[in-house]
Specification:
Largest sheet: 7 strands, parallel, barrel
Bound molecules: zinc ion
Helix content: 40-55%
Number of strands: 17
Strand order of the largest sheet: 11-12-13-14-15-16-17
Strand content: 5-15%
Radius of gyration: 26 Å
Number of helices: 24
Structural class: alpha/beta
Distance between the termini: 57 Å
């Protein structure tokens, strides 16, 4: 069992225990263990075998025992017995916004509700509103929460989908007769969430036989033919995958067809028709004869187009721009010079400043913009003034001993309810740069929230507006805020806007990136890393930037450290 699956089961155990009314320390131990396992830098089995996991902060004897059991056989006897005691439906209810453990237990004990369907019924027929401490407003909120859960639960976050796709691609590539297997669809386009997975296969003749071979792939529990050479796989985790197959000489078409959004494929088909070709699921043909296109460059060339990066294949202007030869040179991970937005043990991160710095240097970055939480984020160990002084002394010592690589003194300051930053100007002056983020009072109305964020940008210390809508993908809608006004103000005040690269956030949304760039706003890609593993978030942030048509020059942290610092300083000078 891999660490991500083990972490999910540890979280599930914590939820069951909470519902059962277990000791809160016990519950927290499992929740902490889940986070620790998830952020392990290496392999779970290795960490168990070497004793590294046993020595890790956040793992105790009881949780270690469960992890061992999970790693050995994929099961936990503790979880099995909890499942017998607590109905599954109650655990599902914990995902509904506005429903905590206390309310769920009250519903179960007083109304005998054990499933989400029963909950919905009670919220509609007034039984729920009649309970003490519930009321009409709570019933309405719960109905909205159920609707949200339904709308989003079939999707997966990009990092989960990508991980599943990588695993399945390997299994497909290993099938006899398969010359090439590639990930396609929304995962290849680096969409923020994905429903099912898509793959393109190059294989020899005998596609009928392919169906049998696909049925033998691990985790596949059903195969259905959905076209001449397309199959839908049902997987044992309740997800599905579509597989498109073609002979090697037509693989370019197959991969492009399996990758593009419907709107993009429509534009390609129109382009083909205009030049006497025919493009459909079956292939690219001229007068009934297949046009050879063994790879994507050949496929696009046959249409008179430059090869379009997968991230742009959404049906916007990409086909016209490819025809005109004016596609952008999209930013790449290697263009980034600095890693921004990173939490250390000083606030709620798992690693020391030295560990984070070393990992960034090893990954090829020239600087690390460290940004622990500020004092208002007390729940996340926000820094008091004395901690700031200690951290800065540590950073100075680290920088003195390094050749070229630098740690920058940043902070993720809270934007308070009225739009002020939570540190005073004298303390803010001591930082090299400041990210300002909204972490509280997200229920404010649109006008209040907009005024709050606009006011924060008047503070000359603010370098970057962090995760500008507060959304959690598949978890929490963005708070209401007038992004047009925020972007206009950011341009006027020369504040950068963050693409927060945490796969749960990916906020700024890719659909807004060009608008911000065209308004003259610099975009900062921030890892929002809370561990060494979180440093790898940067790749997801680059994916968003690429979907948003951004080039290296549009992104703040492609600058060298000195230029980056000069930008931050320039805002403070009157
Ligand atoms: Zn934040
Ligand atoms: Zn953060």
């Amino acid at each position: 069992m891999d660490k991500h699956a083990a972490a999910r089961l540890l979280e599930t155990i914590a939820s069951y225990q909470e519902l059962k009314g277990e000791n809160p320390f016990k519950v927290r131990a499992f929740a902490n263990a889940a986070r620790t396992v998830e952020s392990l830098p290496g392999d779970l089995e290795d960490a168990l075998a070497s004793g590294e996991l046993a020595a890790t902060k956040g793992i105790g004897p009881a949780t270690l025992e469960v992890v061992r059991e999970l790693a050995a056989g994929g099961r936990s006897s503790l979880l099995d017995s909890l499942r017998r005691e607590v109905p599954d439906g109650l655990v599902e209810m914990m995902k509904i916004a506005g429903l905590g453990v206390t309310k769920i237990r009250a519903l179960h004990e007083q109304l005998r509700i054990s499933t989400v369907a029963e909950l919905e019924l009670a919220a509609r027929n007034g039984r729920l509103a009649a309970l003490p401490r519930f009321g009409e407003k709570t019933a309405e909120r719960i109905l909205r929460g159920i609707e949200f859960l339904r709308r989003t639960s079939a999707f997966r976050l990009s990092h989960d989908a990508a991980r599943a796709a990588v695993r399945l691609r390997e299994a497909l590539a290993a099938l006899p007769g398969v010359a090439r297997a590639e990930i396609a669809g929304s995962v290849r386009r680096r969409a923020e969430v994905s429903r099912d997975l898509d793959f393109a296969l190059a294989c020899g003749p005998g596609v009928g036989d392919l169906q049998t071979r696909l049925a033998g792939v691990a985790n596949v529990i059903g195969v259905e033919a959905v076209g001449d050479a397309a199959f839908r796989l049902r997987l044992d985790d309740d997800t599905s995958a579509d597989v498109y197959a073609a002979p090697p000489e037509r693989f370019g078409h197959c991969l492009a067809w399996a990758t593009g959004s419907a709107a993009h494929l429509e534009k390609l088909a129109a382009r083909a028709a205009a030049s006497g070709l025919r493009l459909d699921a079956g292939g690219l043909t001229r007068a009934g004869t297949a046009v050879p296109c063994p790879d994507e460059p050949a496929f696009f060339a046959a249409l008179g187009l430059a090869c379009i990066p997968p991230e742009l294949r959404e049906g916007g202007e990409e086909v016209d721009r490819a025809a005109a030869g004016t596609l952008p040179r999209l930013i790449e991970l290697g263009d980034l010079r600095g890693l921004l937005h990173c939490h250390s043990v000083y606030s709620d991160g798992a690693n020391t400043v030295a560990e984070l710095a070393e990992a960034c240097r090893a990954a090829g970055y020239g600087y690390l913009g460290l940004t622990d939480h500020s004092i208002a984020a007390a729940y996340a160990g926000g820094l008091r003034e004395d901690a700031v002084a200690r951290q800065h002394a540590e950073i100075d010592a680290l920088n003195a001993g390094r050749d070229g690589f630098r740690v920058l003194k940043g902070i993720e300051a809270d934007i308070l309810a009225d739009g002020a930053l939570d540190y005073g100007p004298d303390l803010l002056d001591r930082f090299d740069f400041v990210i300002g983020s909204v972490h509280s009072r997200m229920e404010q109305d649109r006008a209040t929230m907009t005024a709050r964020v606009l006011r924060a940008m008047d503070d000359p210390h603010l370098t970057i507006l962090g995760h500008p809508t507060g959304r959690l993908l598949l978890g929490r809608d963005p708070y209401p805020v007038d992004l047009d006004a925020v972007i206009a103000k950011a341009a006027g005040r020369k504040v950068a806007i963050e693409i927060n690269a945490d796969p749960q956030r990916l906020d700024l949304d890719w659909r807004r990136c060009r608008q911000a760039r065209d308004a003259g706003v610099a975009i900062a890609i921030g890892a929002d890393a809370h561990s060494l593993a979180g440093l790898e978030n940067m790749a997801f942030g680059v994916g968003v930037a690429r979907r948003g048509w951004l080039e290296a020059g549009d992104v703040l942290n492609t600058l060298q450290a000195e230029e980056f610092l000069a930008r931050a300083r320039a805002r403070r000078e009157p």
